[in-house]
């Protein structure tokens, strides 16, 4: 198994965790707003000091790779790269929407035939979302959506769809299909990263530390038809 330093700064929350052998053994997070540049350094120092004090060597650094806040992702990825260069560690990229899905799949009573739709808030009635099955197999790739009553009808007609994330709150009064389910309070946090990070570690899905860049929200805007912006 592996020991991984996990970092998420994709939204207003800043969080860092250490995972080993399939479990989170250290976690620290700040929900006070977008002050990642202040918090991320001390959080990483705490995490690394914890691992060092227990004689646990790190094998890799995992970081949320977007979509998400331009500034937040830039800070998180820069910090992750710094640790990788300093300790000669592998870099793992974890998609933010998949990360958001982990606590839902682990702790919620999701129906057997359900699909899940994590949402990140954009502007007005826009969100960035994807649709997955319960095995996190993508049924629809990440994209920018202007949310209307029928935006997700294709999937809702097939069965229950769970909507969650900071973009889902504003959609409750718009998506009224009987198969729509909403879960409050779901955020991308480093403590949920280890199942995805360890799977990528086992599969040797590593990033080039020198050249890796995250997927900013603006990247999706640039690829979205103008009528949706």
Note down, in words, how this protein is organized:
The protein is α/β, with parallel strands linked by helices. The chain has helices at 36-53, 70-87, 96-107, 153-156, 194-202, 217-222, and strands at 3-8, 14-20, 23-30, 60-64, 90-94, 115-121, 126-132, 138-146, 161-164, 180-183. The strands form 2 sheets. Strands 3-2-1-4-5 form a 5-stranded mixed β-sheet, sandwiched between helices. The longest helix has 18 residues, at 36-53.
Give structural attributes.
single chain; globular; five-stranded mixed β-sheet
Write the H/E string, N to C. EEEHEHEHEEEHEEHH
Care to count the β-strands? Answer: 10
Strand order of the largest sheet: 3-2-1-4-5
Number of helices: 6
Low-confidence stretches: 224-229
Distance between the termini: 44 Å
What fraction of residues sit in β-strands?
A: 25-35%
**Strand-pairing-aware structural class:** alpha/beta
| Radius of gyration over all CA atoms, rounded | 18 Å
> Main β-sheet: number of strands, strand sense, barrel status?
5 strands, mixed
> Whole-number average pLDDT?
92
Task: Note the overall shape.
Answer: globular
- Assembly state (oligomeric): single chain
Q: Helicity level, as a percent range? A: 25-40%
TL;DR?
This protein has 229 residues and is of the alpha/beta class. The protein has helices at 36-53, 70-87, 96-107, 153-156, 194-202, 217-222, and strands at residues 3-8, 14-20, 23-30, 60-64, 90-94, 115-121, 126-132, 138-146, 161-164, 180-183. The chain is built from six helices and ten strands, in the order E-E-E-H-E-H-E-H-E-E-E-H-E-E-H-H.
């Amino acid at each position: 198994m592996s020991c991984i330093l996990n970092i998420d700064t994709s939204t207003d929350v800043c969080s860092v965790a250490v995972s080993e052998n399939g479990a989170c053994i250290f976690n620290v997070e700040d929900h006070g707003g977008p002050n990642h540049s202040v918090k991320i350094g001390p959080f990483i120092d705490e995490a690394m000091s914890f691992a060092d004090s227990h004689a646990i060597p790190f094998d890799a650094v995992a970081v949320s790779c977007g979509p998400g806040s331009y500034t937040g992702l830039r800070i998180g990825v820069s910090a992750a790269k710094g640790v990788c260069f300093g300790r000669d560690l592998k870099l793992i990229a974890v998609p933010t929407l998949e990360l958001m899905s982990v606590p839902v799949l682990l702790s919620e009573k999701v129906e057997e035939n359900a699909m899940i739709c994590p949402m990140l808030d954009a502007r007005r009635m826009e969100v960035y979302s994807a649709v997955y099955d319960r095995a996190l197999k993508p049924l629809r790739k990440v994209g920018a959506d202007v949310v209307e009553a029928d935006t997700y009808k294709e999937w809702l007609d097939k069965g229950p769809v769970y909507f969650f994330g900071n973009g889902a709150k504003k959609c409750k009064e718009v998506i009224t299909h009987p198969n729509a389910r909403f879960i409050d309070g779901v955020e991308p946090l480093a403590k949920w990263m280890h199942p995805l990070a360890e799977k990528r570690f086992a599969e040797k899905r590593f990033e080039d530390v020198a050249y890796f860049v995250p997927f900013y929200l603006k990247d999706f805007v640039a690829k979205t038809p103008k009528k949706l912006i």
